[in-house]
Write a structure and sequence with these properties.
- By secondary structure, the protein is mainly alpha-helical.
- It folds into two domains: about 5-340, Hydantoin permease, CATH 1.10.4160; about 365-450, no CATH class.
- The protein is built from 19 helices and two strands.
- Strands 1-2 form a two-stranded antiparallel sheet.
- Helix 2 packs across helix 13 (about 265-275), helix 5 packs antiparallel against helix 16 (about 335-360) and helix 17 packs across helix 18 (about 395-405).
- The radius of gyration is 22 Å and the shape is globular.
- This is Branched-chain amino acid transport system carrier protein.
- It is found in: Cell membrane.
Length: about 450
């Protein structure tokens, strides 16, 4: 086996990974950061890029060390935790967040500018029924159509966004204004938590297995070899994702003079496209967003239905498709702003846990893979993550801040880092006292007894 793949194949792998995360949903968050952060945009984007880009690559690398699936990775804590974490993850990926978000984004960008703002609820309902109906149709049977469509759309989408960005640089829509209140302090950490909304790290836990299989399809088997190739391809992916998100933030930051403040990134992108490129621009980006959205929806609906078909085999894959499609339709019609607001508490709970799992699997051999360390860390992170989720849901935020504000970084949404470290230390002490045996991971990504 020759481990030195030519650059052309590494480039293909890097672009494939980029295509996995280039969709209708994850281009709407950086623009709103740009509008709200104003002159503090680049500080906020520093935090945003960590959770929205950098951790995506680490999540997939973590899967190569953790057994190849999110269930096996989370199972190092406890089987019941793995089940709860995975169920919440797949529900967020499917009917509770990503599918409604994607459908709403497509409506905001491709349909709403055409039909106008009158009878928005009715048009959204009609569109969502048709769009999710098409998602069901394409998800019903395994087909390469969507995969081929995705490969065709990605370069077209990239070129269109490039035209939009270059136009915005050559002819800026306006000056970058002053930051809004929430971006006047704790800007970096604010951007850090806003990166959660892309959900790309959580999606990487689900779709990362596809990427790992594609690499191993070249004959590369060991974790060490996979990681080496991944780093090379990942640099290409990272460059693309960073360029994408920074460009979207630039458009948002310079758009206020031209289109005013908007409630979500979908409106910013749609109205900026029309302002910069005219009516043709809105039709072009609308078409590509629609096609990209359908591929995202099909991938997510198929993944969540397959997972629940596995853990609850008494209900068939096709029945799960119908169940989750109906739920997606219901949530879609709450509107994009409501969807983002409703999903935020769940993401504030899941993201810290996901980050903790990534760190733990890479540090596994430092504490000999002892389960108590996994448990202690997750408990430490989870306690504060639950509190952050409650605050985001509007449940006694002032009382929670008053009681737990002594925890460093708590009011900025990052207190779980400190409690996670404390949990790690306590778990390590417990493991030592109990003389707990552990499991190491060798260079081939295989588990070996301590």
């Amino acid at each position: 086996m020759n481990n030195k793949l030519p650059f052309s194949k590494i480039l293909i792998i890097g672009l494939m990974l980029f295509a996995m995360f280039l969709g209708a949903g994850n281009v709407i968050f950086a623009p709103i950061v740009g509008q709200q952060a104003g002159t503090n945009t680049w500080v906020a984007m520093g935090g945003f890029l960590i959770t929205g880009v950098g951790l995506v690559l680490l999540a997939i690398m973590a899967l190569t060390r953790g057994g190849g699936t999110v269930e096996k990775l989370a199972g190092r804590v406890h089987p019941k935790f793995a089940l709860v974490f995975s169920v919440l993850l797949f529900l967020a990926l499917g009917p509770f967040y990503v599918i409604p978000r994607t459908t709403s984004v497509v409506y905001e960008i491709a349909i709403k500018p055409v039909v106008g703002s009158d009878n928005t609820s009715l048009y959204l309902f009609i569109f969502s029924v048709i769009f999710i109906g098409l998602t069901i149709l394409l998800s019903w049977n395994t087909t390469k159509f969507v995969d081929r469509l995705g490969k065709m759309i990605t370069p077209v989408f990239s070129i269109l966004l490039l035209v939009l960005v270059v136009t915005s640089i050559v002819n800026p829509m306006g000056e970058i204004g002053a930051p809004q209140d929430e971006y006047t302090r704790g800007v970096f950490l604010k951007g850090f938590t806003q990166g959660y909304l892309t959900m790309d790290v959580l999606a990487a836990f689900v779709f990362g297995g596809i990427f790992i299989k594609s690499i191993k399809g070249y004959g590369i088997k060991s974790e060490k070899e996979v990681s080496k190739l991944f780093i090379k391809a990942g640099l290409i992916t990272t460059a693309g994702l960073v360029a994408l998100q920074v460009s979207m933030a630039w458009i948002g930051a310079t758009s206020v003079d031209a289109i005013g403040f908007k409630e979500n990134g979908g409106e910013i992108l749609a109205q900026s496209s029309e302002f910069l490129l005219g009516p043709v621009g809105i039709y072009m980006i609308g078409l590509v967003i629609m096609l990209t959205g359908i591929t995202t929806n099909v991938a997510c609906l198929g993944a969540v239905s397959e997972y629940f078909g596995r853990i609850q085999s008494s209900v068939s894959y096709k029945k799960w498709i119908i169940v989750f499609a109906i739920l997606s339709l219901i949530f879609t019609n709450f509107g994009l702003n409501t969807i983002l607001t409703m999903a935020a508490p769940v993401l504030l709970l899941l993201y810290p846990l996901a980050i903790a799992l990534i760190v733990l699997i890479f540090a596994n051999n430092l504490f000999n893979g002892r389960q108590s360390v996994y448990v202690g860390t997750i408990i430490g992170v989870g306690i504060v993550a639950v509190l952050d989720a409650l605050k985001e849901a509007g449940i006694a935020p002032d009382a929670i801040n008053s009681i737990f504000g002594f925890i460093p970084l708590f009011t900025s949404g990052a207190g779980w880092i400190i409690t996670g470290i404390i949990g790690f230390i306590l778990g390590f002490v417990v493991a030592k006292v109990k003389k707990e045996t552990g499991t190491l991971i060798n260079n081939a990504g295989q588990e070996v007894a301590e």
